[in-house]
Design goal:
This protein is mostly helical and 90 residues long. The chain contains three helices and no strands.
Amino acid sequence: MTDRQHEKESQAGQSRRQGAVYQGAFEAVIALLITVCLGYWLDGVFDTAPALLLLGTAIGFASFTIRLIRLGRWMRGENSGDAAETDEGE
């Protein structure tokens, strides 16, 4: 393999990792926003303020944390199963 081919493969791998990082961060933030908004809306429907908002925040934060932990493991190459899930779009 030539240096040029090796450099090209290295850049492709780096681009793939950067894309996975942006996708993972975006998914984590969206999950948090959706659960918080859903909790807020359900509080209005059932007049339970702020119980469901707090529950939605807790669920969203847990989802956010789990997604970032999985992403970190994938970036370090510790868990090849998560890499396959990320490539398939989870």
